[in-house]
From TrEMBL:
Gene3D superfamilies: Mannose-Binding Protein A, subunit A, von Willebrand factor, type A domain. Residues 1-18 form the signal peptide. Keywords: Signal. This is C-type lectin. The lineage of its organism: Eukaryota, Metazoa, Ecdysozoa, Nematoda, Chromadorea. The keyword Signal applies. InterPro entries: C-type_lectin-like/link_sf, CTDL_fold, vWFA_dom_sf. CDD domains: CLECT.
């Protein structure tokens, strides 16, 4: 359910940032004009990278989600000149900012910090800042270097993307918009049929079956927000079906599960069936 929440959050941030971006585009028009680098709309070129920032103080999760929502990452640092470059970036913002998030997070406490952009941790910082990571912490860039903070300590989000990468999206091979989404794509227009197969053999066990049922129910909402909704009146809608599988399949929901429906009480372990035979 937390994954779903993140997806939902991205959309919200994307919309809020869009308004911000239009504003920033105007502010930065003069900087953009002097640089040959062509950046996606919403990003401005500086020092060979295409950059984007929100000039707001947000926690780590919001900062990296905001970057992901525009198809970019918060910066990662790989040598002293990278560090100097990104410290310099504080002043490029309009107005200048005093701190922003890097994309490092603590994956293995005590180990090196991990870069979300999947580049290796090949530089540990002038004082070894990027090793000996403490759980729940990441790094801000300050004028005097790298400063460790808990994820909930607010700082600006600054994002950049690899300008050497193809402008077209590698997955759909289509043009992408300012958020890195396929041009003309509207998230409301996406609809999928999801069929979930629940193992109801003895190998699953009653507790795991109960938990799996709760997980499936959580796809629809957490009681506050709706996630996957089968709204048959919408122009496009997602349908979710659930099949219980032991020695024979049982259709629990025939692509008609809604947020009021439960798996608990409908799915039960079939006694005597030790496991499902995936080959058959
Ligand atoms: C520093 O790392 C960046 C990649 O992050 C690379 O492009 C640059 O050439 C490196 N600079 C030096 C001096 O090694
Ligand atoms: C941390 O990074 C340094 C530099 O890349 C490397 O030499 C070291 O082995 C890494 N340590 C761990 C625990 O991964
Ligand atoms: C949903 O599908 C199941 C399985 O086919 C069926 O038993 C149930 O009546 C359907 N529910 C509705 C609301 O149509």
């Amino acid at each position: 359910s937390s994954r779903m929440k993140i997806a939902l959050l991205l959309v919200t941030i994307g919309a809020a940032w869009y308004a911000n971006l239009l504003q920033m585009d105007t502010n930065r028009a003069n900087i953009a004009d002097t640089d040959q680098l062509q950046c996606r709309n919403g990003f401005y070129p500086y020092g060979g990278v295409c950059m984007y920032s929100n000039n707001e103080n947000v926690n780590y999760g919001v900062a990296v989600s905001a970057c992901a929502a525009v198809g970019a990452y918060a910066p990662s640092i790989h040598n002293q000149s990278d560090l100097d470059f990104w410290i310099g970036a504080l002043k490029w913002q309009n107005p200048p900012i005093s701190h922003y998030w890097l994309d490092a997070y603590c994956e293995t406490p005590g180990g090196n910090y991990t870069w979300r952009d999947a580049l290796p941790t090949d530089y540990l910082g002038p004082k070894g800042e990027l090793t000996g990571c403490a759980p729940g912490t990441g790094y801000h860039i300050h004028a005097d270097g790298l400063k460790r903070f808990f994820y909930d300590t607010p700082a600006s989000a600054v994002c950049s993307y690899d300008t050497k990468a193809d402008r077209a999206d590698p997955y759909c091979n289509c043009a992408v918009d300012k958020f890195g989404f396929p041009s003309g794509w509207n998230y409301n227009d996406i609809w999928v049929d999801v069929a979930i197969i629940l193992d109801t053999s003895e190998a699953m066990g009653t507790t795991a079956c109960f938990l799996a049922g709760a997980l499936i129910e959580s796809f629809f909402g957490d009681g506050f927000d709706d996630f996957l909704i089968t709204d048959t009146n919408a122009p496009f809608y997602t349908r979710v079906g659930v099949i219980g599988m032991s020695d024979t399949p049982t259709v629990l929901y025939n692509l008609n599960m809604t947020k009021n429906d439960k798996v608990h009480g409908k799915a039960s372990i079939k006694k005597g069936v030790l496991g499902i035979d995936v080959v058959a």
